[in-house]
Design goal:
Order of helices and strands: HHHH
Number of strands: 0
Distance between the termini: 42 Å
Mean pLDDT: 88
Structural class: mainly alpha
Strand content: under 5%
Largest sheet: none
Helix content: over 70%
Shape: elongated
Length: 136
């Protein structure tokens, strides 16, 4: 008899599903904006905002099955995404604006870098499963 994966393996798999769907949609928007001659940072900003909406609801309900307070998870989620956005913008700025690499290629790589950062912070901080309550 086999059992469904739990813990890190299960949340990693679910994060990948949400992330793939999210990034396909976000990258499609980024590509359309790029084809419309929108610069790298504004195009990434638009796709990142759309992705944050998809990511929060998908990861809260499906990936991490978080039942904690939505208010505090939203604030933490925004902090994590600010860090992810900063990393993404820095990669685009350096490799596209400074070194002249094509923005579609750089964004494809940046997605992976940001995914590692955000998964780690979401699992360990934003949607952390609380252990049994203690009396303080």
């Amino acid at each position: 008899m086999t059992t469904a994966p739990t813990g890190l393996a299960a949340s990693t798999g679910r994060f990948a599903i949400v992330g793939i769907a999210n990034n396909l949609i976000g990258y499609a928007l980024f590509a359309v904006l790029t084809l419309l001659s929108v610069a790298a940072i504004p195009a990434m900003t638009a796709s990142y905002c759309l992705g944050m909406f998809i990511s929060y609801f998908g990861n809260r309900t499906f990936t991490f099955k978080h039942t904690g307070r939505a208010g505090s998870s939203v604030v933490k989620f925004l902090v994590v995404n600010a860090a992810g956005y900063t990393l993404n913008a820095a990669l685009l700025w350096y490799f596209v604006e400074h070194l002249g690499f094509p923005q579609l290629a750089v964004q494809a790589v940046a997605i992976g870098c940001v995914a590692v950062l955000t998964f780690t912070l979401m699992r360990l901080w934003v949607f952390k499963h609380e252990t049994a309550a203690t009396n303080d």
